[in-house]
Amino acid sequence: MKSFFSALVAALSVLFLSTAPAAADEAAYDALLQRYVSASADGVNRVDYARWSANAADRSALDDYVDELAAQRPSTLSRDRAFAYWVNLYNAVTLQVVLERYPVRSIRDIKSEGAPFDPRAFIGPWRTKRVTVEGRRLSLDDIEHTILRPTYNDPRVHYAVNCASIGCPNLMNRVWRAETLDADLDAAARAYVNHPRGVSVSADGDVRVSSIYRWFRDDFGTSDANVIAHLRRYADADLAARLARATRISGHDYDWSLNGR
């Protein structure tokens, strides 16, 4: 009887392995990001969309990576691996969207398709259903607002997903991985908070922050004090000291210009 059950388990294992999707080629995506994403002198990671869009093989490689991700089963992954999976998918699809329509001055110049009665469809591509994962057709908005934000309840999501704009936190020039997820999220938060497009404090003590902290206020805290406390957590010593004297946020800014070179 024991040998029967052993044989059954072995047979089921073989069946599962034979039907499981092949892993996405992270090395190939890493190579693309390292080839086309680089830090600029102003502290913003820029994407060489012009060179990438002209390279048919590398555009095809990005498409292959998205297809490979879409074939995965994120519901079977650990929490950190699923988090990294969804961020990689979001960012890779965003790159696809821009490359398909390049040259554009802003991602908001690309309108959503298939949502003619949705007013939000006219201010960007985020409502277009772009990819099918485990039988569910998803848009970029679906990935960010119905999966990442509510599932993980972590404000650092906003430092990981990239909307192809100068005002957005940097697109990392390598794949997000579970093994380094927490450290990479903290590093991304620090990089953004300590850059003027994230937070600036005038000589008079007025605090201006990215519009991200207004659009997603509930994720960072429902008051100026809570948002400032979040910012101080990732601020360097000088900025943290200036924020310690602040009690309110005086304004919000965001640059929707394309993060191209």
Overview of the molecule:
- The protein has 261 residues and is mainly α.
- It has twelve helices and seven strands.
- The strands form three sheets. Strands 5-6-7 form a three-stranded mixed beta sheet. The chain has a two-stranded antiparallel ribbon with strand order 1-2. Strands 3-4 form a two-stranded antiparallel sheet.
- Helix 4 runs antiparallel to helix 5 and helix 11 packs antiparallel against helix 12.
- The longest helix is centred in the middle third of the chain and has 23 residues.
- It is globular and about 65 Å long.
- The protein starts with a helix and ends in an 8-residue tail after the last strand.
Summarize the SSE layout with pairings.
Elements: H1 2-19, H2 26-36, E1 37-39, E2 45-47, H3 49-53, H4 56-70, H5 79-101, E3 129-133, E4 136-139, H6 140-152, H7 157-160, H8 181-193, E5 199-201, E6 207-210, H9 212-215, H10 217-220, H11 224-234, H12 237-244, E7 251-253
Low-confidence stretches: 12-18
Neighbour order of strands in the largest sheet: 5-6-7
Secondary-structure element string: HHEEHHHEEHHHEEHHHHE
Give the overall shape, derived from the CA principal axes: globular
Indicate the mean pLDDT. Answer: 92
The residue fraction in helices comes out at: 40-55%
What's the total number of strands? Answer: 7
Q: What characterizes the major β-sheet? A: 3 strands, mixed
Question: What is the tally of helical segments?
Answer: 12
Query: How large a portion of the residues is in β-strands, by DSSP E?
Result: 5-15%
Structural class: mainly alpha
Supply the number of structural domains. 2
Query: What Rg do the Cα atoms give?
Result: 21 Å
* N-end to C-end Cα span: 67 Å
